[in-house]
Design a protein that fits this description.
Elements lengths: L10 E6 L13 E6 L11 E4 L2 H6 L3 E3 L21 E5 L12 H11 L2 E5 L12 E4 L14 H9 L3 E3 L3 H6 L7 E2 L3 H13 L1 H15 L4 H25 L2 H21 L2
Parallel strand pairs: 1-2, 2-3, 3-4, 5-6, 5-7, 7-8, 8-9
Helix pairs in contact: 2-5, 3-6
Length: about 270
């Protein structure tokens, strides 16, 4: 395996789909694995590596590969014990539901639950030591956000902190609502979740314990093992199968793939 600047003519190639020209077509001797990230699957890719498990499951030849968690992550300080006073959102403010960006929301949260609300900027995305609940709601609508990963959920699990998210498909695919994270469909439901977490220590601890168990599947070691298996076993097997098939079968399969991707682009929300 090697990193290259120019696209080779043959062999197994792993490429970020956003770096490929829209009309690029893989040569006959190439097996192209497209890394989707936040973009769109490339119609010329022979398999699609998605950071959202729900998206991978609905794509023909989709492969789920979880996004890496936050480097240098600091867990919640155990000295905080049953302290319940800080809720935080980790991310760019524009990616937070508009209803939660207002001063009125922060005042309502303080008045009803006794918690402050922090929006953590990029230089603090690793630091969970003084946080008691993580909140991550992009929208209260039904959008599935198929292009987004569940990284915020993984980070909260690793940090040992309860997580309240929206109806993101990635959260639902990797988590178990009510057991290792909570779903909020409105600001009022967030308040109800927080009130329960504050009043029921056993419930709070149960979410943390379940999350820590799940976090083992998204450690650096676990994700590295997934990539190693993909590169050394999965992709060579898929490439061998493709090269062994008659050209007409690959042509039909690729045409079917392009139709499926067109449908995916239309209904991916």
């Amino acid at each position: 395996m090697e990193l290259v600047h120019d696209i080779p003519r043959d062999g197994i190639v792993i490429a970020l789909t956003g770096t490929l020209p829209p009309h690029f077509r893989a040569p006959q001797g190439m097996f192209l694995a497209g890394v989707i990230a936040d973009g769109l699957p490339h119609p010329s890719a022979h398999c699609h590596i998605a950071q959202n498990a729900a998206h991978a499951h609905r794509l023909p030849r989709g492969i789920f590969m979880p996004h890496w968690t936050q480097p240098g992550l600091l867990m919640r300080d155990p000295v905080r014990g049953n302290t319940f006073e800080r809720v935080a959102f980790y991310g760019t403010k524009s990616n937070l539901a508009p209803e939660l960006q207002t001063p009125e929301w922060a005042e309502h949260l303080l008045h009803t639950v006794g918690c402050t609300f922090d929006i953590r900027s990029a230089e603090h995305w690793h630091d969970y030591h003084d946080v008691d609940v993580v909140l991550a709601v992009r929208t209260f609508g039904r959008q599935r956000q198929l292009h987004k990963p569940a990284t915020k959920l993984y980070n909260a699990w690793r940090a040992g902190i309860p997580f309240i998210g929206g109806r993101n498909s990635a959260f639902a695919a990797d988590g178990n609502p009510g057991r290792d994270y909570l779903i909020a469909r409105s600001p009022d439901e967030i308040i109800r979740h927080l009130q329960k977490l504050k009043s029921d220590e056993n419930f709070y601890c149960s979410l943390v314990e379940q999350g820590l168990r799940k976090a083992a599947d998204y450690s650096d070691e676990s994700i590295t093992a997934r990539w190693r298996k993909l590169v050394e076993e999965t992709l060579p097997t898929l490439a061998t199968q493709r090269f062994a098939r008659p050209l007409w079968r690959n042509f039909c399969s690729d045409a079917s793939m392009r139709i499926a991707l067109a449908v995916d682009r239309t209904f991916r929300s």
